[in-house]
């Protein structure tokens, strides 16, 4: 064993011991230097055994260098320069070494195959096949290693493409992998992920291009991916908005203003700002108002000209566009009365049959306004008014009857019986009320006995006086005792009403309503004005009321019956069935005044003027109650034909 051979073995053992302690760069440098020394030693070492060992050392160093650098160096020993015998010996040694080399390469390639280090395995296997193509299964292993290397290369690139968002390229690469080996790693899962991500990107493109249907179709297939569900919801909302917008624009272009407004407003409610919706909404609202004004005015003109069918067509169009526009429904009703009076008559007769008297009064009042000489309508209007009055007296009488206030019950029920003796059970209730009244104290019977009013029967009067004398004497004694007592009973004062001449404006009065309320003073005299003469007669009168009211208490023991007195003056272009001045006491309608002489309302004449009139109302039925007096000027149905009222000298006497 030569010294050189021993020295190289020692260096090799020392390097193997140091490999775990030194860095890769130092290991590579030392391994390369030792490999070069061993290869060079081949020139000097001629012993076959020593050469074989050095050759193995060279292969091992080549593996170390490959592991660190990825490059496999040449490991063949240099040839010796001996004589021919030594050359032949070297050839034999080389042949024997070739077999050992194939075995070593094969073993090493299997190691690298197990480690899935395909490049290194391919390097060894290619050497084996180059030396001996039939050597064991090296050729098969070489094909498999190349296939695995191809799969790994494709997978690595596909994964990089997927991470960088290049889904189309990643999909192509993963498809090639799956085609080669469907079970390779997680290639199928990543292919599915790439396909999903690609669909997501496609959906985003559709969303950016506002292609809502295509976006929805794609997003429905990947609703569980990332925020696809939220984007699907948003796409559906946008699709609905887009459809709604197109419908609204179509409605605007075809003159369907109300539909267009409703749909544009729905868009604003959902999205706030959307395309040119705000501008279009303002535009269509202006177009609607313009058509409403034109058609309503045209309908009013046709109405004044009594061109009923043309007026109906205009008002019906207004009603379709805006049912709440001004008084269009009232106008339609008025026109339909002229076009279909029999239908209105049937409604009025039905109201009469079922006892809806107030409704019947309104309907037949309307028919009388249209045809004032129609005897049947006039008769049924009077019948409805009579029944309404009877119902009011009867209900009043029954209220007092229930409270056992027999005197007032007799008065109210007496009015019912005088107007209609057979009305319900009024006669029977009146008889019972009178009997209960007669069973009260003799003094009450004396003060309420109707005999005193006429003295038509002398004998009953004398009998009554005789019966009453002891009572009168007893009362005189009682009165004297009361006068002599320490505490005297004060005399109840009559109720008072504050500022019925409106000198302090409305200081004492509550007032309100849709119509104007004011106080006007002329020549030192003031009066309340309910409504206004300044309203434009043709379509400029607000529908509603102007009212004033005041409350006061009436003592139940007042000596004389109080009376409400007031003066009024009504001006009107309308009829009393439509506009009027009314007086209410505790919600009871006790007076209603207007133009009952006119036949047709008109703005083409001077207003009807009632002149100053005085009315009085008995307040005895309200004894012991708090009383509220409500005075109202009423514009009930139409914005046409103004009515206003002056009120003055409201007082309690």
List keywords for this structure.
Jelly Rolls; single chain; 11 strands; 653 residues; 6-stranded antiparallel β-sheet; alpha+beta; 5-stranded antiparallel β-sheet
Give a short summary of the structure:
The protein is of the alpha+beta class and 653 residues long. It contains 22 helices and eleven strands.
Helix-strand layout with pairing:
Elements: H1 3-18, H2 24-41, H3 48-69, H4 84-114, H5 118-131, H6 138-163, H7 167-180, H8 187-208, H9 212-219, H10 228-253, H11 257-271, H12 277-304, H13 308-321, H14 328-339, H15 341-353, H16 357-370, H17 375-402, H18 406-419, H19 426-438, H20 442-448, H21 451-454, H22 458-484, E1 510-513, E2 517-522, E3 525-530, E4 544-553, E5 563-572, E6 579-585, E7 588-593, E8 608-609, E9 613-618, E10 626-635, E11 643-652
Antiparallel strand pairs: 1-4, 2-3, 3-11, 4-10, 5-8, 5-9, 5-11, 6-7, 6-10
Helix pairs in contact: 1-2, 2-3, 4-5, 5-6, 6-7, 7-8, 8-9, 9-10, 10-11, 11-12, 12-13, 13-14, 14-15, 15-16, 16-17, 17-18, 18-19
Account of the 3D structure:
By secondary structure, this protein is α+β, with helices and mostly antiparallel strands. Among the domains are: 444-489, no CATH class; 510-652, Sandwich (Jelly Rolls), CATH 2.60.120. Helices cover 59% and strands 12% of the residues. It has 22 helices and 11 strands. The protein has helices at 3-18, 24-41, 48-69, 84-114, 118-131, 138-163, 167-180, 187-208, 212-219, 228-253, 257-271, 277-304, 308-321, 328-339, 341-353, 357-370, 375-402, 406-419, 426-438, 442-448, 451-454, 458-484; strands at residues 510-513, 517-522, 525-530, 544-553, 563-572, 579-585, 588-593, 608-609, 613-618, 626-635, 643-652. Strands 2, 3, 5, 8, 9 and 11 form a 6-stranded antiparallel beta sheet that branches. It has a 5-stranded antiparallel beta sheet with strand order 1-4-10-6-7, with no helix packed on it. α9 packs antiparallel against α10 and α17 runs antiparallel to α18 (406-419). It starts with a helix and ends with a strand. Mean pLDDT is 84; it is low at 81-90, 451-459, 476-480 and 482-489.
């Amino acid at each position: 064993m030569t010294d050189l051979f021993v020295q190289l073995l020692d260096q090799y053992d020392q390097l193997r011991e140091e490999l775990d302690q030194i860095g890769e760069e130092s290991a590579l440098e030392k391994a390369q230097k030792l490999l070069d020394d061993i290869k060079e030693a081949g020139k000097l070492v001629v012993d076959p055994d020593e050469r074989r060992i050095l050759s193995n050392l060279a292969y091992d160093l080549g593996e170390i260098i490959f592991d660190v650098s990825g490059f496999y160096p040449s490991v063949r020993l240099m040839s010796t320069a001996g004589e021919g015998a030594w050359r032949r010996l070297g050839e034999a040694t080389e042949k024997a070494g070739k077999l050992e080399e194939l075995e070593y390469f094969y073993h090493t390639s299997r190691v690298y195959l197990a480690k899935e280090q395909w490049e290194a395995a391919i390097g060894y296997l290619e050497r084996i096949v180059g030396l001996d193509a039939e050597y064991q299964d090296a050729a098969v292993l070489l094909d498999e290693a190349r296939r695995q290397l191809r799969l790994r290369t494709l997978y690595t690139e596909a994964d990089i493409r997927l991470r960088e968002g290049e889904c189309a390229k990643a999909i192509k690469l993963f498809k090639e992998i799956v085609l080669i080996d469907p079970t390779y790693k997680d290639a199928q899962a990543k292919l599915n992920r790439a396909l999903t991500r690609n669909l997501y990107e496609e959906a985003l493109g559709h969303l950016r291009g506002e292609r809502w249907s295509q976006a929805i179709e794609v997003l429905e297939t990947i609703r569980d991916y990332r925020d696809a569900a939220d984007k699907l919801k948003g796409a559906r909302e946008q699709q609905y908005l887009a459809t709604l917008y197109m419908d609204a624009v179509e409605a605007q272009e075809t003159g369907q203003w109300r539909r267009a407004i409703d749909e544009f407003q729905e868009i604003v409610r959902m999205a706030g700002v959307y395309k040119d919706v705000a501008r279009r909404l303002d535009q269509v609202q202006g177009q609607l108002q313009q058509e409403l004004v034109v058609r309503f005015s045209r309908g009013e003109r046709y109405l004044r000209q009594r061109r009923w069918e043309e007026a109906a067509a205009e008002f019906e169009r207004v009603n379709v566009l805006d049912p709440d526009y001004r008084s269009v429904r009232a106008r339609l009703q008025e026109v339909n009365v002229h076009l279909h009076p029999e239908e209105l008559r049937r409604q009025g007769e039905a109201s009469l049959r079922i006892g809806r008297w107030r409704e019947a009064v309104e309907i037949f009042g309307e028919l009388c306004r249209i045809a004032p000489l129609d005897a049947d309508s006039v008769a049924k209007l009077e019948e409805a008014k009579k029944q309404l009055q009877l119902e009011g007296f009867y209900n009043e009488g029954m209220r007092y009857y229930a409270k056992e206030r027999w005197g007032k019950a007799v008065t109210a029920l007496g009015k019912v019986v005088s107007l209609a003796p057979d009305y319900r059970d009024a006669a029977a209730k009146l008889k019972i009320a009178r009997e209960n009244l007669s069973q009260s104290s003799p003094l009450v019977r004396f003060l309420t006995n109707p005999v005193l009013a006429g003295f038509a029967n002398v004998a009953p009067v004398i009998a009554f006086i005789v019966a009453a004398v002891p009572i009168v004497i007893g009362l005189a004694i009682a009165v004297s005792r009361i006068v002599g007592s320490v505490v005297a009973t004060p005399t109840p004062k009559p109720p008072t009403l504050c500022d019925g001449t409106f000198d302090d404006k409305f200081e004492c009065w509550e007032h309100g309503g849709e119509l104007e309320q004011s106080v006007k003073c002329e020549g030192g005299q003031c009066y309340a004005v309910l409504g206004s003469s300044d309203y434009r007669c043709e379509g400029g009168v607000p529908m509603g009321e102007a009212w004033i009211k005041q409350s006061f208490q009436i003592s139940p023991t007042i000596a004389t019956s109080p009376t409400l007195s007031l003066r009024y003056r009504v001006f009107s272009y309308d009829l009393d069935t439509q506009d009027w001045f009314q007086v209410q006491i505790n919600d009871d309608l006790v007076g209603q005044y207007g133009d009952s002489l006119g036949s047709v309302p008109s703005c083409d004449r001077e207003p009807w003027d009632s002149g100053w009139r005085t009315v009085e109302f008995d307040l005895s039925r309200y004894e012991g109650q708090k009383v509220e007096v409500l005075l109202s000027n009423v514009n009930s149905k139409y914005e046409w034909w103004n009515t206003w009222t002056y009120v003055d000298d409201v007082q309690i006497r």
